[in-house]
Amino acid sequence: MTIRSPDAIREPLLPRIASGLQAYALLGALSLLGGCSTFGGGSGGSETGKASYYGDRHHGQRTASGERFDQNALTAAHRTLPFGTRVRVTNLNNDRSVVLRINDRGPFVRGRVIDVSRAAAVRLDMVRAGVVPVRVEALD
């Protein structure tokens, strides 16, 4: 009869426990990420929050999509919408709106839902304020 040490019995369990914990951690992370978007995965979804704009300092730099940022184009950065998605952004202070194309990721400031180009900021009449409340509606 062979007597096994307690360490020999525990060793095979540790990798299984660790992989089980990793699976639960991954499942939890995916659940949290799935609940972060209010768009619901199609056109017609919307969210409200604050918008800011970016221009001079970023002009000509590569965006997350790989294209160069053009402050004079009607584009925007959003955290979750796919690149190429068209959105209608409405300034809730004055009801001005503009249709933009998502080509970058951001904003990375709490409470902000979209960063728009300088050209979009001019059309939304938000250049002076810098940050305004907006509604963002996914069109496609």
Keywords, please?
lytic endotransglycosylase activity, RlpA-like_sf, EC 4.2.2.-, Barwin-like endoglucanases, 140 residues
Q: What is the CATH T-level topology of the largest domain?
A: Barwin-like endoglucanases
Largest sheet: 6 strands, mixed, barrel
Report the strand count: 6
H/E topology pattern: HHEEEEEHE
Radius of gyration: 23 Å
| N-end to C-end Cα span | 71 Å
Tell me the strand order in the biggest sheet: 1-5-2-4-3-6
Averaged pLDDT: 82
The CATH class designation of the largest domain is Mainly Beta
Report the uncertain regions.
29-37
Blueprint of the fold:
Elements (H helix, E strand, L loop, with lengths): L5 H5 L2 H22 L11 E9 L20 E3 L8 E6 L5 E8 L7 E6 H6 L7 E8 L2
Parallel strand pairs: 1-5, 2-4
Antiparallel strand pairs: 1-6, 2-5, 3-4, 3-6
How would you explain this protein's 3D organization?
Strands 1-5-2-4-3-6 form a six-stranded mixed beta barrel. It is of the alpha/beta class. It has helices spanning 6-10, 13-34, 118-123, and strands at 46-54, 75-77, 86-91, 97-104, 112-117, 131-138. β3 and β4 form a beta hairpin. The longest helix has 22 residues, at 13-34. Its EC number is 4.2.2.-. Keywords: Cell wall biogenesis/degradation, Lipoprotein, Lyase. This is Endolytic peptidoglycan transglycosylase RlpA. GO terms for molecular function: lytic endotransglycosylase activity.
